[in-house]
Structure formats: structure tokens, C-alpha cells
């Protein structure tokens, strides 16, 4: 007596297959979300500790910049990537811009467990990075709330900031109608794409570390793949270019141009 064959096209097989696919996609999405919230809480807590250390007296405040550089050197030596001085300054700025989270600190002043603190950051870290570029506190709060309310992707948030949606809403005679306008639709981000978020890869140290020159050479040698990762809006301009900002000149490793926003993007 032969065993029955399970046909891939059968309803029974499709039911279990589709159920497992949905389970895995859900698990991956939740994993990315969990990593993002823990990552964001970690960076906020790092910023808090840096600020509080610097505020511990005049002597500490005097070597605040040395603290950032020293931490960057030691953390980079231990964890390899993700802790450049500019990143640490960003964590400090993140804490200073979002100090309202401090109300969740315990009475004794001790830090909350990261899992508890993470509940205060419903947006992905990449969204908070965009919000840090908004200097007006009221505008920043507006974009944060609207991102949460509308479920904007990071690209949609970028577009709304670039087109001054906050200012346009203030000037509008019908603010409620402005707020009801949907942001341009974005394709759904697959779990496989979300897990490749560079911030997440950096946080988890999932890629080998390169020196700046090695990284630049690697990006150029795989320029097509790199451009595909950036998206269709980016065009490569050149390497080791000089840029003038106000009265100062700066040299950038790689220079790109963002077609939609008509802006240069430097690395």
C-alpha cells in the first residue's frame, strides 16, 4: 500500500504553507520593531548619561568634547562600528531634544530598564534621526505626532519635512483639511528589507568594519549595487569633492545628488 502524496497545489498544503509564511513575516516584522525600540532607547540613555556626566561640575563641562572623542575611540575599539564622535553627538542631541521622556525615570534617579524605556519610543530610530534635523520644537513635535497618527514611513516623513508641511498647515485657513490630506503612498516594506536597515545592521554589528578609505573603495567598486540600495532618487556625482558652505570649504568622500529634493548628499 503506497503512502498518499501531498500535492503542493492542494488546499490542505496551501493552508499550512500560507499560515507559516504569515507567521514568519509577522515574527520578522516584530523582531525589527523590537530591535528598533531597544536601539532607540539605548541611544537616548547613552545621550542622557553623557549630558549628566558633563553637568556634574565645571571641570567635567570643560572637557565635554574630550569625553565624546574618548568614548568614541574606546567604544569603536570594542564594538567596531556605530560609535563615531558624530554619532555620539547625535545621541546627546537626541536626549536633549526629547528630555520629556525623563518623566519616566524612577524616583531614585536610576535608569529604567531598557525594555521599559523602549515603550516611550514608538517610532523607528531612522525617523528620530530625521526629526533631529527639525530645529523648531513645535514643528518637531508636530511631525512626530503626525507620523504616529498617519503611520508615515521614513520617506514620507522626509517628504513632509522637505515640503514644510508644518509651516503650510499653520498658514492654511482650513487646518483640519490640511491634516486630512494623505501623504503620497509608499510601497510596503518587506521584513527582509526592514532588517537591512543600515541603522539596525550597525547597531547589531552585522557587517565587518571598514576603514574610511576601504569603505569608500568598496562602495565605488560595487557602485551599481550601492546605488540600488540608496534608491532611484540618488545620482552619483564624484569622490573626494570640495564643497563650500557659507564661507568655509569642506572635503567629502562621496558626493551624490538627490533628484526629487534637488539637493546634494555627502558622505
From TrEMBL:
Record-linked InterPro entries: PD-DEXK-like_domain (IPR053148), YhcG_C (IPR009362), YhcG_N (IPR041527)
PANTHER family: NUCLEASE YHCG-RELATED (PTHR30547:SF5), UNCHARACTERIZED PROTEIN YHCG-RELATED (PTHR30547)
Protein name: Uncharacterized conserved protein
Residue ranges occupied by any YhcG N-terminal domain in the UniProt entry: 20-168
Domain YhcG PDDEXK nuclease: 193-261
Amino acid at each position: 500500500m503506497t503512502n498518499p502524496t501531498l500535492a503542493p497545489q492542494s488546499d490542505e498544503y496551501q493552508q499550512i504553507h500560507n499560515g507559516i509564511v504569515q507567521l514568519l513575516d509577522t515574527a520578522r516584522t516584530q523582531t525589527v520593531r523590537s530591535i528598533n525600540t531597544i536601539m532607540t532607547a539605548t541611544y537616548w540613555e547613552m545621550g542622557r548619561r553623557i549630558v549628566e556626566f558633563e553637568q556634574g561640575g565645571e571641570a567635567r563641562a570643560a572637557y565635554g568634547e574630550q569625553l565624546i572623542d574618548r568614548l568614541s575611540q574606546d567604544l569603536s575599539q570594542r564594538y567596531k562600528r556605530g560609535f563615531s564622535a558624530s554619532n555620539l553627538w547625535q545621541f546627546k542631541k537626541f536626549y536633549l531634544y526629547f528630555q520629556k521622556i525623563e518623566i519616566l525615570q524612577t524616583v531614585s534617579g536610576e535608569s529604567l530598564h531598557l525594555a521599559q524605556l523602549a515603550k516611550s519610543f514608538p517610532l523607528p530610530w531612522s525617523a528620530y534621526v530625521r526629526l533631529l534635523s527639525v530645529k523648531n520644537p513645535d514643528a518637531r513635535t508636530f511631525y512626530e505626532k503626525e507620523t504616529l497618527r498617519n503611520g508615515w514611513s521614513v520617506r514620507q516623513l522626509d517628504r513632509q519635512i522637505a515640503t514644510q508641511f508644518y509651516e503650510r498647515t499653520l498658514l492654511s485657513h482650513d487646518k483640519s483639511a490640511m491634516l486630512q490630506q494623505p501623504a503620497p503612498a509608499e510601497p510596503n516594506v518587506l521584513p527582509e528589507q526592514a532588517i537591512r536597515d543600515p541603522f539596525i545592521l550597525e547597531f547589531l554589528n552585522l557587517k565587518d568594519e571598514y576603514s574610511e578609505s576601504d569603505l569608500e573603495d568598496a562602495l565605488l567598486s560595487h557602485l551599481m549595487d550601492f546605488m540600488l540600495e540608496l534608491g532611484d532618487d540618488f545620482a552619483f556625482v564624484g569622490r573626494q569633492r570640495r564643497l563650500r558652505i557659507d564661507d568655509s570649504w569642506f572635503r567629502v568622500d562621496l558626493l551624490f545628488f538627490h533628484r526629487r529634493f534637488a539637493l546634494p548628499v555627502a558622505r
